[in-house]
Amino acid sequence: MDQLFNRKYIVQGLFIVIAIILLAKLFYIQIISDKAFLSAESNVLKKKYKYPARGAILDRNGKVIVQNEPVYDLMVIPNEVKPFDTLSLATALDITTDDVRKNLRKARAKSNYQSTPFVKQISVQSYARLQEIMYRFPGFSTQDRTIRHYPDSVAGQLFGYVKEVSNDDIEKSEGYYKPGDYKGKSGLERSYEEVLRGERGVINTVYDAKNTPQGSYANGKYDINAVSGERLISGIDIRIQKLGEELMLNKVGAIVAIEPATGEILAMISSPGYDPNLLVGRDQGNNYMNLIGNPYRPSLVRPIQGSYPPGSSFKPIDALIGLQEGVIDPNTTFNCPGYYMAGNHKVKCEHVDGNISMRKGIARSCNTYFCHVFQNLITRNGMKNQRQTYQDWRDKVAKFGFGSKLDVDIPFERPGYFYNADHYDKVYGKRWGYTTVISQAIGQGEITATPLQIANAMAIIANRGYYLKPHLIKAIGDKNQVKKEYIKKNYVGIDAKHFEPVIDGMQDAVNSGWGTAVLSRIPNIIMCGKTGTVQNPHGKNHSVFIGFAPRDNPKIAIAVIVENAGYGSIYAAPIASYMVEKYITGQVTGSRAAGVEWMKKQNLLPAIIDKTKKVKLTKTDSLNIKKTDSIKRIKDSLILKPGITSKSVVLKPIQSKPALVNNKPETNQK
Amino acid sequence: MIQQQGNRFFFNVDWITVLIYIALCSIGFINIYASIYNPDKAAAGFDFGSSYGKQLIYVITGLILGLSILLFDGRLFNVFAPFIYGITLILLVIVLFVGRNVGGNQAWIPLGSFRLQPSEFAKFGTALLLARYVSTFNPKFRDIKSIFIAAIIVLAPLMLIMLQPDTGSALVFLAFMFPMYREGLSGYFLLIFLGMIVLFIADFLVPTYILILILVTVGGLFIYANKRKQKIIISTVLVTLVAVGYLFLVKIAYTKVLEPHQRTRIELMLGLKTDNKGAGYNVIQSQIAIGSGQATGRGFLQGTQTKYGYVPEQSTDFIFSTIGEEWGFAGCTVVIGLYIFLLLRLINLAERQRSTFSRVYGYSVACILFFHVFINIGMTIGIIPVIGIPLPLISYGGSSLWSFTILLFIFLKLDSNRMGFI
């Protein structure tokens, strides 16, 4: 053996090094990275999805208010397409041959081998036509889908809408949603998405390299049947929901009606509304843009997003806290000279009643009386401790649900404003007292609330001291499950005995000769209520009414707000009384039926409430151009497509010109 | 007496190598069966007309061929080496004229229903002649002349195979560098060869001027470190100049000499190009199949990529993807382990030979096998461009199996005879 013998080790060493390199790479692709494994799955398995029907929604009387309609997506696997008669396909689908070519190109760009949507949401009629000639179009197949249908064409904002998931949704869902899935984007469709959507089914089919199906995978072991979404029962009474939307036609505002004993929302009207069927089907995108562009903002859910000063409807709460704290008793009187002096600031009252009692003070909505109550409340521990007593008062009012969200079961609720003492410290330093915040005594100024909060406060009075969380959906699924939080009574810390004197005043407001809402008295039903006329810095006062009925065992608590409509007694109170009567008796009778018709015809739309149009321009020329432009756009957006307007109940093309030119509502006719 | 002698020869055969040989052939048969497995046809029973059926015949005949080689007198191989070499060269020339064109390569001579691939047989022809040359002249490869003669022996078949053109098979002939290295060829040749490969790859990944800068800097530093040794300075300058020249040569050769599909394969391997549907399809699918095997594989006949034909040429050049998918990392380790064990053992066997002829031949066998294994597996997992050469003893194909059998068993015969004088 010579020294060259040692070269053996170099050669053998090289073998070993190379073996290690090979094994290292194998270790990486087989064990560390799962990329290859996933690619292998997608190579072989093609999943055909079976889409579940979304859950239906019923109203409180069992009427279906949200249902499904079958549609069909035409899918295409571009690779399997053979030359075909584009014209007959286009005719069957009601599209042009150019569309056919364009869609095919699009599908091809997505994937040549995967089934890709060609035309989405084909109607049953087109589908029937297509079925007969499908055999002539190899590579095309249909996919069953369902879309929403809303038989009553009301409550668009409550139901929300369903739309195909965006890339963003898919990412956020961490693998739950896949392209082509539908998802509730707003309203009930959004908040109950997880219950409504059901479970997507899947059929796994094995394909070989030549893209020929090789049968089901593992004998269908991993296939899943589609499971329909759960049915929901809502507390809505669709009859009064519909009546409410008709009454609010061509008015801006909101109605919320709650069943006090359960917290179930009986009706929730946001006006102007829109037909939820507009946001279904192939025109969804266009109609959505029209709604968004509409200056009256029908997409705003006013019952939970509108921010209104509660106005005089706040006074019963003042009275209740005053009674609970002992600063007044039911017999306390104050002198009303027609105003109240808060320091050197004058709060006007509508009447000069001299000495006025609490009962009458509520019935006649006396500002002076409640400013005194507020004064007594805040100063009861002396002038020095006003900050602390204010905060105490604020906390007690907050228990009624003001200043925070009520967690209603549709999204995007707003809390309203209701400031803590800290806020005033910041604004005024330490130098503030009851006179500074006196306007809150009459529900004006720095306090705002959503119509839902106001209606809920009314339910608290109706219940004599507690509320259940207001909610739209009372039962979920076949087992009628009820959420725990919806059966819990939330007490507001006022003893039951204090309610009767206040309710006396509210009863008088509607039923006695000196009440503010006496014109809205309902025959045979004792409704207790309170009008409000909310000062609106932007224009005409808002008309407000809150109330409940009947006085004993109340069945309905209601809040009505009509923007820019003036006194509460003229619009809000009658609307509330019609709703209450219809709910309790099933119809509005007698001369009052004519009142309903009259109310439906009233047009109180303000000139322009589009705040986004406030553009600061220096040149007067361009200002003019902008103005005419915006007016034209308003008109355009109000004139929806002819086919749709016939369906649309709420947003009929109104006589926008008179409304824009002559801002005065037709109350003068009366 | 004859009987006794025969017994002694069989007794001296390295049965461990034979066992590994049988193991690898069996693994090949099982995986070829899986590669073309079709549940519908499997019900019909064993099919001798199918690939796996033929492979079984090849394995059995191969084994008979191997055992009968053991019956030859080992000295014959030394004596007939030039004739065998000559015959393979002639076949390589014939194939250029009468060859059947399969997959772009004029590599096959049709013989009735059977096709002969002369390039496979040229391997042991060359190995025998090289061994004969080294053992006869004991050149030690210190002078240009001996290197030149050895180079001619190796390059003649290489060039003929290049003309087919079958680059993969031709590349395998570079394996003969190692036996020559073992017999005295300077290690610098291997280093230069390695350097050429590194520069070749680097030339694609890094701009040429940066490479030149690096080469010049390294050369400069080297000269600075050895500034008193004039000889080293001169050779360093020369090496640097040649390397820079080589860089430009590569660029030119790349565009002028290589076929477009070869360029594409190289670019795919280096990650300069992705083409999952065209030229890159094979490699991608092969890697997917292997990777999807994960640690323990999907199990025999359970590989979906294999079963549904996602990897082209799976029973021949890409047989390793079946192993990877159905047997996972564990199976791959076993197969690579068997090969490495075989290679190391062959080197050890070669080293225990008394005759230079046997040793050189042994080294040639080990290194040819090594090149095949490295290039083939490397190709299926994407660390080497696609070069179509079979995985020894496992890939489907009679020519390949028989040529490796002959290659191996000649060595086993020589080894069993190691005590005698040749």
From TrEMBL, chain A:
TM stretches of this protein: 9-29
InterPro entries: Beta-lactam/transpept (IPR050515), Beta-lactam/transpept-like (IPR012338), PBP_dimer (IPR005311), PBP_dimer_sf (IPR036138), PCN-bd_Tpept (IPR001460), Penicillin-binding_protein_2 (IPR017790)
Membrane topology field: Single-pass membrane protein
Main location: membrane
Enzyme Commission no: 3.4.16.4
One example GO MF annotation: serine-type D-Ala-D-Ala carboxypeptidase activity
Enzyme kind, highest EC tier: hydrolase
Domain Penicillin-binding protein transpeptidase: 253-577
Organism domain of life: Bacteria
Cellular localisation: Cell membrane; Membrane
Gene3D superfamilies, per database record: DD-peptidase/beta-lactamase superfamily, Penicillin-binding protein 2a (Domain 2), Penicillin-binding protein 2a, domain 3
rRNA-binding is among the record's keywords: no
Keyword Lipid biosynthesis: no
Listed name of the protein: Penicillin-binding protein 2
Originating gene: mrdA
TrEMBL record, chain B:
Record localization: Membrane
Primary location: membrane
Transmembrane intervals: 12-36, 56-72, 79-98, 144-163, 184-202, 208-225, 232-254, 327-348, 360-387, 393-412
UniProt keyword Cell membrane, yes or no: yes
Pfam short name (any one): FTSW_RODA_SPOVE
Superkingdom assignment: Bacteria
Keyword terms of this UniProt record: Cell membrane, Cell shape, Cell wall biogenesis/degradation, Glycosyltransferase, Membrane, Peptidoglycan synthesis, Transferase, Transmembrane, Transmembrane helix
Statement: the UniProt record of this protein carries the keyword 4Fe-4S: no
Membrane topology: Multi-pass membrane protein
NCBIfam families documented for this protein: RodA_shape, rodA_shape
UniProt cross-references to PANTHER family, sorted A to Z: CELL CYCLE PROTEIN, PEPTIDOGLYCAN GLYCOSYLTRANSFERASE MRDB
Protein name (record): Cell wall polymerase
